[in-house]
Model the fold of this input.
Amino acid sequence: MRFLTLLPSWVPPLSIALGLALAAPTVQSAEPSRGGAVATEHPLCTRAALDVLSQGGDAVDAAVAASLMAGVVSPTSSGLGGGGFALVLTPGATQPVVIDFREVAPRGLDAAALGRRPLPFEARGQLVGVPGEAAGLFELVRRFGKRPWASLVEPAARQARRGFAVGPHLAQIVGGQGAAEYRREPGLGNVYFPGGHAALEGRVIKNPKLSRTLSRLGAEGPKILIEGTIADELVRTVKGAGGALEKQDLAEYAVRERQPLHIVWGGDDIFTMPPPSAGGLLLAETLGMLSREELVRLAPSEGAYQHLLAEAFRSALWDRFVHVGDPDAVPLDTTALLAPSRLAERRRGLALDRTHSLPLLAAEEHGTHHLVVADASGMVVSLTTTVNHVFGAKLVLPEAGIALNDELDDFALERDAASMGLKSLPNAPRAGARPVSSMTPTI
Done:
C-alpha cells in the first residue's frame, strides 16, 4: 500500500495528482541516520520536530513538539486556546487513527446571539469554545509517543522565554489592516506591538507569560486548563467578554477517536478527516467525481480545469451545509454520500460549458497551522491545529498568556438555511457540540 500525505489543511485535487510521496524520506538532522521528514509553516517548528526525531522520538512526539512551538512563533492561527485534528498512521497499519480535539460549545451557549453575527468586540467571548489542543496533544503522546511529555513542551516554553525573531507572515498580519483591533486586546498589544508599534520582521519578541504556562503544562499536564488558577482565569476572561463558559464545561471536555473517510483514487488509498470536518468529505466527493486521468488531461492553468474543479467543489459544499454537523449529535452515513453511483450521477451533471445557480453560502475560511511528520519506522502524522480567525477571538488570558479561539463562529447561520429552502441546518449552534470545520488532514 502506498500512502500520499498532503501538506496544507485544504488543497485541491491537483495536489494529489502531483502527489507528495513520503516513502522512506531522509533529512539532515543531529543524527541523520535516524531518518525522517518534517514539513510545517515555520522553520522553528520544523527544527523542533527534527530535534525530537534526532533524540529518539517518533513522528507523534515530533508533531506535538512542532504544534506547541507553532503556538509560540506562529500564534495568529494556532495555540493552546484552540483545537484541531490529527491522523496517525502507525507502522504496519492499514489505516490511520483519527484523533479529534476540536473545540466544543459550552452548556450556556447563546444560540440567538450567534445568529446575530458578527458580534461587537465587547461580546467576543460568546465565540469561544472549550479549547482542546492541550488535551489532544497529550492524548497523542499518551497513546503513540515515546518521549516524556515534559520534554516535548519544553522547547516551546524555552522559545517563548528567550524570544524569537518575527517572521514574514506574523509581521504582515500585525502590520496589516486588523492591527487596530489586535492592539485593543492588551494581551496582544503588549507582546506583538512593542512600544505601540507593530513588530517588524526580524524583531525579537518574548512571551514570558505564555512561557510560564507552557512550563506548567509540561510539569502538570492538561489538567491546568481544567482546574486551578489558569482554569479560573479562563472562565473569568470569557465571561468578562460576554461568554458563558463554566468550569464544568472544561471538566466535561473529551478528545474523540473517529473513523477516517477512505477512498481509492488512481490506485492510491486516501484517508481523510471525517465529520466534524467537512473538508474531508469535500475532498473525497471531489475525487470520487473526477478521475486522475481526467485531471491530467486538462491543463491546470486553463479555465476548463478550474471550472470543472469549481463545479465539483460547489456540489460537495452543498452536502456540507445540508448533511454535516457534530457526528455525536447529528449522525451521518458518509458511506451513502460517497457511494460511487451517487457521485457518478453528480458527475453527469457537471459540464465544461455551463454552471448551476446556487444560493450564496456563508462559508468563510480562516487560518490554520498544518504539519506533516514521518519517521524512519514508517509512522506518519498529518495534523492541523487552529484558533480560527487571526488571533482567534482577540481575547488573551491576562496572566496565562493564552490566546483564545473563536471557533463558535463556525456554526451555521439561520439565513443559510433560509437561502437553501430548509428550516434548519445540522451545523446550527447547539450547546456541547463541535462546530463543523474545513480542516482536512489527509494521508
